[in-house]
């Protein structure tokens, strides 16, 4: 019982930190609807074209995004165009910008 008393606050603290790290999520269903694909198709294209762990680690260490500031990954756009040929990099970027979560204020 004594261990449980100490474990509960620790669990609460670590769980809260895990949720805080993930931050706000993109509204995938709304984004998919706006670009004319299903939510499952959008998620699969993101999954298939996500940066590797090594790319993410290198980007974090250099202080840059893994895909730079150049816009959407061409492979991601190509994947989405298989489901909706009318999607362009510009239209996708505009929809993503519209749904970008606001960053919390830094103190």
In short:
With 107 residues, the protein is mostly helical.
Structure description:
The protein is mainly α and 107 residues long. The chain has a domain at 25-98. It is 64% helix and 0% strand. It contains six helices and no strands. α2 (28-35) packs across α3 and α3 (39-48) packs antiparallel against α5 (74-83). It is globular. The relative contact order is 0.14.
Low-confidence stretches: 1-22
Outline, from the CA principal axes?
A: globular
Average pLDDT figure? 77
For the record, give the distance between the C-alpha atoms at the N and C termini, rounded to a whole number: 39 Å
Helix percent band: 55-70%
Tell me the number of strands. Answer: 0
Strand-pairing-aware structural class: mainly alpha
Reported for the largest beta sheet, the result is: none
- Oligomer state equals single chain
Question: What's the topology here?
Answer:
Layout: H1 2-22, H2 28-35, H3 39-48, H4 53-62, H5 74-83, H6 89-98
Keywords: Signal
Protein name: Secreted protein
Region (Disordered): 49-77
List the keywords:
64% helix; 107 residues; mainly alpha; 6 helices
